[in-house]
Amino acid sequence: MKKLEKNEVLLWFGSWTSKIGNIVFDYANSMSIVSSFSGKTWILALYQSSETIIQIIFNLIGGAKADKGSRKKIVIITDILAAIVCAVLSFFVDTGCMAEVMICANAILAVIYAFNSPTYKSIIREMVKKNRIGFYNSVSNAGGELIGIAGPIIGVGLVQIIGTRGALLFDAGTFLLSAFAESLLKRVIEVSKPENEKNNVISDIMDGFKYLIREKEILFLVILAALVNFFLAGYNLLLPYTDVMFENEFHNFYSKALVMEAIGGVIGSALCSKIAGKFKDDIRALILFLGGTGMTMFIESAASILKNMYVCLVPFILFGIMLTCFNIMFMSHVQTAVDEVYLGRVFSIIFTVAVLFMPLGSFAFSFFVNMRSVKSYALVGGGIIMLSMIGLIVNKINNKKM
User: Fold this and answer.
1) Nearest 5 degrees, angle CA 282-CA 381-CA 348?
2) How many CA atoms lie within 13 A of 284 on its CB side?
3) Spatial distance between the Cα atoms of 260 and 318, rounded to a whole number of angstroms
4) Which CATH fold topology does 201-401 show?
């Protein structure tokens, strides 16, 4: 077991408490809207969609600010602002304007997150030793997976015990705890940010794109991640329909598949904590893990023939392992390989592209795949495998040029 360092513990604590707050916030608000406006589904749709639109607009700005200002101050301030929003929102529960205020609050939190997320990813370079970034990301991801499982349960319990208002005040407390943990961080490396005469956000964002175009390997990874998200949208679209696919064989298969995928995520995180150092700069290994996610979808299509629930659930564990390893290795490589000056902007571009490609994939696969057939997983998996093969070829060509 590796010895834990203070900054790593503080960053994990800050990230996990914020994630708990986000999960409880979404659950409490969604349940409140559903119970109060059961006949107006468009209110919940507006609440959920506003976040995506705002992320597309503000992610790039957040990344540019992360590269120009103090990252530590930005993550602290954004968490404090999130706490204030939750606390203020709690006073509007059970009022006549609750829906409007909740939608506005969610929009404000989406703006805050657009600044916090790329900054939090890029601050790792300053606060964690380079040779430990893979290990840090592995543990962070494992904790996130466990919170993803426990979060909704916590949300249900809080709303039932202390009500929606109490749950929102609990959220405010989690964000304040996160800000406190971040205030104790100490840099392990000094970051020198060059003076830049330009003080224009648009110019800063364009500089980030120019950097990506110059750095072919990083650009290749960003494009790969974007295309992966397109196909993963197909997987996410199919997953809830597993209840329909297996309605004559199994009961509540969807919920079981979600649990198996989360378990796979924890296993994948544990695996990566052991091998991250060995493969941190190995693009080929990263692409092979990606290809593994596609292969698990082929296995699921084949496993369905046996009509055994346990056999059919195994591919979802494998999928969680493969996708988690790919994500951890991808993030770790970006955090170590990208120039410190452009790190926030690169992450903001990655997040923006991800937000754009997921809905595109969802709509595309909704037209071209049969939602009632488990064989549709083979189509999505085949796309990922083909993408991985192309990635391996491109990577081999790039290595020959070096």
Assistant:
1) 55
2) 7
3) 9
4) Growth Hormone; Chain: A; (1.20.1250)
CA distance 334 to 286: 12
How far apart (Å, rounded) are the C-alpha atoms in residues 237 and 377? 10
**Considering the entire predicted model, what is its pTM?**
0.82
Give Dmax over CA atoms of the chain in angstroms. Answer: 66
Concatenated DSSP letters of 214-249: H-HHHHHHHHHHHHHHHHHHHHHHHGGGHHHHTTTT
CATH architecture of structural domain 6-183: Up-down Bundle (1.20)
Q: What is the mean pLDDT of residues 142-148?
A: 84
Q: What share of the chain is helix, strand, coil (3-state, %, to 5)?
A: 85, 0, 15
pLDDT in tens, 37-73: 655 556 666 666 667 778 778 888 888 888 887 889 9
Name all contacts of 250-255 with Cβ < 8 Å and 24+ positions apart: 250/309, 250/312, 253/309, 253/312
6-183 and 201-401 agree in CATH topology: yes
- Alpha carbons within 13 A on the beta-carbon side of 68: 19
Report the amino acid identity of residue 314: V
* Reported confidence tier of residue 84, pLDDT bands at 50, 70, 90: very high
Q: Which two tokens stand for residue 328?
A: 């951890």
CB atoms inside a 10 Å sphere around CB 19: 18
Tokens 């046996």: give the residue.
306
Alpha-carbon separation of residue 168 from 117, 124, 316, 346 (angstroms): 21, 29, 33, 33
Tell me the angle at which helices 216-238 and 376-401 cross, rounded to the nearest 10 degrees.
Answer: 170
Q: What is the residue extent of each domain of the chain?
A: 6-183, 201-401
Mean predicted confidence (pLDDT) in 75-80 = 94
**Residue 254: alpha-carbon gap to chain centroid:** 21
Q: What is the mean pLDDT of residues 225-239?
A: 86
Write the Ramachandran bin of 235: left for phi over 0, alpha for psi from -120 to 50, otherwise beta.
alpha
Token pair 């080929």: residue: 284
Tokens 């696969």 sit at which residue?
Answer: 365
For every residue of 149-162, DSSP letters joined together read HHHHHHHHHHHHHH
Alpha carbon distance 352, 157 (integer Å)? 34
